[in-house]
């Protein structure tokens, strides 16, 4: 069966999806949040709702590679704080998908991303918090973890856009680069695998989407390798700026598409 004909893709269209898949791998091992560009490419070339189902298995492939790369740097107390709130967000996101059309989804997610990018920039200017992440040391940190967790679960369910949300949370909580990447790697592997039954139940994952995934998955690997090479060459301040910039770009794209 011809995958490109099945989805009515041109050669250039498939090349764009292949680039987006490569960017998924890069984002998982280097600049988390950069895959919002991949989200926009998939949504532009495929039916918007269906694109989330195609992208999810590719994200999981990238998550596996990221876990293998950064597994020793995960901060598990933060993960355990986040998971209950994220589960609630996923349920809310599933109900939202049943009701909302593509336009409402895009505008909602884009607005949330831009708002949190602005909040993070203001917080980073107000204080620099090295050391143990705030998420497990203060009452306000626990409240923030729950708030970001619900938003992260919601955005990752409705548009696979949870990366920027959790990136902003981990930055604001004071994570350094490797701790950031190790914690987010395990977080998204667990959350994205948990999303599969919900996505399949909504009809977003089926034989046709998995066939396209099989053709695109090979491009995730070189992207992850490129990210691993690049991350050692990016200093902490530049890393944080790239994460925030990717979040802003993704939010604007969602508002304009």
Automatic annotation (TrEMBL):
Predominant cellular place of this UniProt entry's protein: membrane
Organism the protein comes from: Streptomyces andamanensis
Cellular localisation: Cell membrane
Topological type in the membrane: Multi-pass membrane protein
Lineage top rank: taxon: Bacteria
Name of this protein: Probable membrane transporter protein
Family to which the UniProt record says this protein belongs: Belongs to the 4-toluene sulfonate uptake permease (TSUP) (TC 2.A.102) family.
Keywords, sorted A to Z: Cell membrane, Membrane, Transmembrane, Transmembrane helix, Transport
């Amino acid at each position: 069966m011809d995958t490109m004909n099945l989805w009515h893709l041109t050669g250039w269209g498939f090349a764009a999806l292949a680039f987006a898949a490569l960017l998924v791998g890069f984002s998982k091992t280097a600049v988390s949040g950069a895959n919002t560009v991949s989200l926009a490419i998939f949504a532009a070339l495929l039916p918007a709702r269906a694109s989330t189902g195609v992208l999810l298995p590719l994200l999981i492939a990238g998550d596996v590679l990221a876990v293998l790369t950064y597994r020793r740097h995960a901060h598990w107390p933060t993960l355990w704080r986040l998971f209950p709130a994220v589960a609630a967000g996923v349920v809310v996101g599933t109900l939202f998908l049943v009701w909302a059309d593509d336009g409402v989804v895009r505008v909602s997610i884009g607005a949330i991303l831009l708002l949190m990018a602005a909040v993070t920039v203001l917080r980073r200017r107000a204080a620099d918090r090295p050391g143990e992440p705030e998420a497990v040391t203060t009452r306000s940190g626990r409240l923030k973890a729950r708030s970001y967790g619900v938003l992260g679960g919601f955005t990752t369910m409705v548009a696979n856009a949870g990366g920027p949300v959790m990136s902003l949370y981990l930055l604001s909580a004071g994570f350094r680069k490797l701790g950031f990447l190790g914690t987010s790697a395990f977080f998204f592997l667990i959350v994205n695998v948990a999303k599969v039954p919900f996505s399949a139940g909504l009809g977003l994952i089926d034989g046709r989407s998995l066939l396209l995934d099989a053709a695109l998955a090979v491009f995730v690997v070189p992207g992850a390798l490129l990210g691993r090479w690049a991350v050692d060459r990016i200093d902490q301040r530049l890393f944080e700026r790239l994460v925030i910039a990717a979040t802003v770009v993704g939010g604007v794209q969602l508002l304009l598409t």
